[in-house]
Amino acid sequence: MIYDDTIVALATPPGAGAIAVIRVSGSKAIDIVSPLFHAKGEKALEEQASHTLHLGHIKDGHRVIDEALVSIFHGPRSYTGENTIEISCHGSPYIQQEIIQLLTRKGCRIAQPGEFTLRAFLNGKMDLSQAEAVADVIASDNEAAHQIAMSQMRGGFSSEINQLREELLNFASLIELELDFAEEDVEFANREQFNDLIKRITFVLKRLIDSFAVGNVIKNGIPVAIVGEPNVGKSTLLNALLNEERAIVSEIAGTTRDTVEDEITIGGMGFRFIDTAGIRATEDVVENIGIKKTFEKIDQAQVVIYLIDASHSALRASLSKGENLLGIQTEIEEIKNKYPQKPVVIVVNKIDQVSTEDRSSFEREIQERLITDSQRKNIRLALISAKTGEGVERLQEFLLDFVNTGALKNDQTIVTNARHYDALLKALEEITKVQEGLNAGLSGDLMAIDIRQALYHLGEITGSISTDDLLGNIFANFCIGK
Ligand SMILES: Nc1nc2c(c(=O)[nH]1)N(C=O)[C@@H](CNc1ccc(C(=O)N[C@@H](CCC(=O)O)C(=O)O)cc1)CN2
Ligand SMILES: Nc1nc2c(ncn2[C@@H]2O[C@H](COP(=O)(O)OP(=O)(O)OP(=O)(O)O)[C@@H](O)[C@H]2O)c(=O)[nH]1
Ligand SMILES: [Mg+2]
């Protein structure tokens, strides 16, 4: 990638808006914009101090394109580390295009996606994991994802990795020094201290690797599977939670064949709800594929919402006779046994169809018969009407409860990036080899190779080791103008 030219791009979303920001970065940014910008009674732009703002006109020859605010940043004191000009113009797509075309005619090149941030990285304004976090900050749509991305952008994760690298590098140098004195059989690197260090690094790497599961959940939302027999109102509940007609609802049992998923934020936490095909014995081939998928989705989900239809007459009859609740009991037992750790919310739906007395008997019976004491911790019961919305808020509170009392509450670094996860796994693999070498009393030269490999993989995370291909891949996924 060439990066000694001057680039331009729209930094605000395309289309009409109140104001649009056009960003210019590169050694000639100020020289290119200055002659196009006319501010009455002011010094020329190139003579203005860094980080100042100026009102004037953008002109193409004698033709005034717009009245605009222009800010100036002198490299290296800027986001990219280069000379930078930002033009805040009126947000008409026509004006935006006219200004960008004018700038390209005067020598700017249209920026690639992510190129401003790429330059910030190449100019040492941030390391690679911080640059990646910039994209995560922009994409964050809930409090938890935002917090992790901000901390990574500000260098939290980088400093943790750099600290490990530094300590490891220290030992690598000492061990390599031993190689120069191979004949004399000296040990510069104290093996006991080295052992302690390797143990500590192993511990930190494992913690970071484990955090990836949590990180993914936060980035993509906690998966919640909505399951139950056909026609109990699963799709209606999904729609109620999302507040839109996302899934098809009908009185015909077996309506949902394929799973339907969507994400919403509840109390700052992202949840991904998965509406599934109703579980029943059927000869229908397509429906059976859907049912098979339902079980896969239960596997992947972190929380299961199990729906029961309160208006089902057979269910009410069996309830009053103390029978096995139409096989529901068996099914819930099955879910509980198969996933003992998985939080389950039993939801009695369609309560708008039953009397107040029936409601309380449902509540009592299910509490007593389905939720035994030992399992109360991660089982909740909610009575709702997906159709009228009654009780849906309480259901949402239960979901938040699970999160707040669960594993997601900690302030340690959380890895959210698959590339980082991969590099951490590889680093751990090498460190494990070093540990084995130490245990076996291996000679320094052999261990030094594995240490260098571990250092290499840690360096991949922060970008102290990077290739054009890798950078191309990462920044191609950024938005234009970032
Ligand atoms: N208009 C505008 N808003 C923006 C950005 C931008 O580039 N332009 N940002 C872009 O993402 C974010 C802010 N990030 C920035 C980071 C550093 C510098 C900067 O000028 N840094 C210099 C000076 C630091 C100082 O004097 O304190 C430097 O690092 O040397 C500017 C913006 C969000 N809002
Ligand atoms: N009265 C009442 N009817 C409801 C309620 N929730 C759902 N229904 C109705 O129950 C029927 C089935 O609803 P769906 O949401 O399609 O049920 P489902 O569980 O997704 O069914 P399948 O996709 O076939 O497994 C529809 O006619 C809904 O209008 C409710 O709370 N009260
Ligand atoms: Mg359905």
TrEMBL record:
Keywords: Cytoplasm, GTP-binding, Hydrolase, Magnesium, Metal-binding, Nucleotide-binding, Potassium, tRNA processing. InterPro entries: AAA+_ATPase, G_TrmE, GTP-bd, GTP-bd_TrmE_N, GTPase_MnmE, MnmE_dom2, MnmE_helical, P-loop_NTPase. GTP binds at residues 231-236, 250-256, 275-278. CDD domains: trmE, TrmE_N. Its main location: cytoplasm. K(+) binds at residues 231, 250, 252, 255. Homodimer. Heterotetramer of two MnmE and two MnmG subunits. This is tRNA modification GTPase MnmE. It comes from Gangjinia marincola. The lineage of its organism: Bacteria, Pseudomonadati, Bacteroidota, Flavobacteriia, Flavobacteriales. The gene is mnmE.
